[in-house]
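Can you give me the bound-state structure? Components:
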Amino acid sequence: MIKVENLTKYYGNFPAIKEINFEVQKGEVLGFLGPNGAGKTTTMRILSGAMPASYGKASIAEYDVFESPIEVKKRVGYLPEYPPLYREMTVYGYLKYVAKIKNIPRKKIKDSIYSIMEKCSINHVAKRLIGNLSKGYQQRVGLAQALIHNPEVLILDEPTIGLDPKQIIEIRAMIKGLADEHTVILSTHILPEVAMTCNRVIIINEGELRAMDTYEGLSAGLRKSEVIKVGIKRENEEIIKLIKGLDGVLKVDKDSEKENSYNIEVKLGADMREEIARIIVENNGGLLEMQTVSLSLEDVFLQLTTEEGGSA
Amino acid sequence: MKNILAIAQKEVKTYFISPIAYVVLTIFFVIYGFLTFNILSYFNLQCMQYRQYNQGFPEFSISQFVLEPSLHNMGFIFLLIAPFLTMRLFAEESKGKTMDLLLTSPLYLFEIILGKFLSVAFFLIILLLITFYFPATLFVIANPELPPLFSGYLGIFLMGSAFLSIGIFASSLTENQIIAAVITFGILLFFWIVGWASHMVGEPWSTVLKYLSFIEHNERFISGLIDTRDIVYYLSITVFGLFLSHRVLESRRWR
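Here's the bound-state model for the whole set.
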């Protein structure tokens, strides 16, 4: 559905993105992850047709973004970082204007406005001025703007920014629901969001693609060690010593947040749970809990964006 | 065409739901009314004096002594307010980040520019229609000539369109509305007074300066002369201003 080849954009002499390549299949939700200034917004703006690239190719639904921009724009809904809203218009008036310039046939305008207001749950503020709405509602009106012409591709730049937790959950559910008929690209700096909504993740830093995989793939591929968390009722120097002495155990740390809890770092692939459990039980330590902790996306993200070269 | 009208309609609505339209119209008509009242009183005084010394009615033309100066004033007052009508058209979109909506909608850039131009041109037409109250009253109390009135209004409309097109160009340059207004005002005032220097320079420059000046062309319209040269002058300024806006907006996308 979306194909990007060697996409590059210079601002003056400064390269915002450098030779980016990726593809997105129909119905997929792709997450864009990266620190501020990584080039997420630049890539999205080029794909939506707001800005041309310096060189490279991008196409949406077989239409080239540079050669047939009008065809592309008909098929793309774009929610920029700052939703493009006219503060002095009412929600209904604004959506009516958007519907017109997005070439929705005159007869269908009313229906599409009502159905999109329903979808984004903004129908009760239809007659209010956009400037008087809270940030969360403004964000939803922005989302409605991107969705009103039922585009095949949705490009959302930090869609959950400024929303309260309940609204965030709603919007995430909505994006997941959209994935069936739409292809979605979304950028975010909230990492769990990617894990919850996206099929695939692209990590981008300093304008370069650092990684592209599923969430599970990313965290699995980067794990060098595993952490086992154990809770011991009666702490005992002897137990810790014995565990440290086990072959394959790299490090034993006392958990800083939870009492009677230890993080045991072990070599990847060496399943040490049985031995550890036996040591604790045999020494009458009182095993309370034991769990394997997988590397969080935060850790992956930090590794990829701080480690020069990462694994791409 | 549908897209152009959709944009124009939205812009006209914005003028009338915000205070802009009402403030601009009020200021325009206070000043215009004050000046026309003065012209009419002065004309009245002149007629009375003439009658005292010559006995009998003077052969003064109400068209020449009342309508023509009032049309002149109308043009100049519009020069003063045009920058405030156009300053927001693109500067506000850039500042409010709403330009992204237009740029990512299936619209050509020229449709956006023409839509905005149409909206202010429509505003100008409304303003001119309201000023008809003055010639209309004159028709009730006297019998002014009709043709110079129409050519005068045509001239003002063409000149006003040129003002607005220059204003749109200035608005496309910046995201600061005040800067847009000042640039517009500077360009308009310069082209208004540029003809004054024609006495100081020799040929061919004096002809060039006279040709460039807004006043020279407008004078012929107001005195009832419709000349294709004047129409071409105003239309080419209008088209050139819109063309420059297109170039500026296109190049800003690349940055």
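A couple of observations. The first strand of chain A starts at residue 2 and ends at 11. The radius of gyration of chain A is 24 Å.
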